[in-house]
Amino acid sequence: EISKENYYFGYKLFNPDDKSAQHHNAHHCLEITVNCSPNIDHCIIRSTCTVGSAVCVSGQGACPTIKHCNISDCENVGLYITDHAQGIYEDNEISNNALAGIWVKNHGNPIIRRNHIHHGRDVGVFTFDHGMGYFENCNIHRNRIAGFEVKAYANPTVVRCEIHHGQTGGIYVHEKGRGQFIENKIYANNFAGVWITSNSDPTIRANAIFNGNQGGVYIFGDGRGLIESNDIYGNALAGIQIRTNSCPIVRHNKIHDGQHGGIYVHEKGQGVIEENEVYSNTLAGVWVTTGSTPVLRKNRIHSGKQVGVYFYDNGHGVLEDNDIYNHMYSGVQIRTGSNPKIRRNKIWGGQNGGILVYNSGVYDELLSAQSRDGFNYNYVFKRSMFNYN
Fold this sequence. Notes:
This protein has 389 residues and is mostly beta strands. It has a domain at 1-155 and 169-174: Pectate Lyase C-like (3 Solenoid), CATH 2.160.20. The chain has no helices and 50 strands. The strands form 5 sheets. The protein has a 16-stranded parallel beta sheet with strand order 1-4-7-10-13-16-19-22-25-28-31-34-37-40-43-47, with no helix packed on it. Strands 2-5-8-11-14-17-20-23-26-29-32-35-38-41-44 form a 15-stranded parallel beta sheet, with no helix packed on it. A 15-stranded parallel beta sheet has the order 3-6-9-12-15-18-21-24-27-30-33-36-39-42-45, with no helix packed on it. A hairpin with a 5-residue loop joins β48 and β49 (376-377). It starts with 7 loop residues before the first strand and ends with a strand.
């Protein structure tokens, strides 16, 4: 335990031999406590204790500088920062730990830069119970669960990190988690690049989210969030999926070249989806289904290999002021009990027509649709129904 200021530890090996906690009352290999600011440099830290972290930094004024250390092959958490502790943690290697590479909780607020956090047997970084922190230029990959997990009012800031090849997802925000994720590269994760659920409300801004083995951003179970100015592409499932009463704000994103659809809103999904560019996806640009009611406004939805916007199985909502063009099928399809409001869209270039309504689809109104060649078609339909069998 280190409990006084200004110690320097360098080029040391911390490696207790006893696998039990019997002789280690604090259960930590290295503990830094209240009002303590040591410099720890080029140390190798191992812990075979199963009931305590390898490094624990706790308490007001605990503010170490830990650089160029190796915290690996431990039987619990690698680095644990809690109880208002702070500190600077740079250029460390944190790998193959039994639990998370890093835990931050209870108002812990570290600065963590250029750490390599990989091959953990659990999550890479776990912030929870009001944990915070600033994470920059870290490489987080090949952890067994998510690369970065946020829950229970945690609010980290994660900037310009690479979060990739997670065996489940990239970023998982749940149980009222928050956080700002800005300018990261999130790719090649087995499940969604970003998962948001259970009343969580993070900001996901200016990230590249690509080549996931499932979807790009997946918002479910009353999830919220601001999904803004991201480049989302090349994912195996929908670029953004919104379901089960979730209601995010989705704006200024590029969602393209997916192997599935662009945006998929289902099972009473909601949300405001505006000023995005959705293009060159394999299935529909936007799907709205099973009681969902999103507002789609001022988007450019184009060059898809199927339908532009597809309402089916009681998909509703509002579609207004969008440009919808150059799809292999129709620009908009409405079917099987769907009843969206369609206003002031420009719909052109669909190889199977502009708007196709069939199998008991309904729509309230179509106002001021304009073709690309400049002709105005001011048709207004009130409760019109067309059936094609």
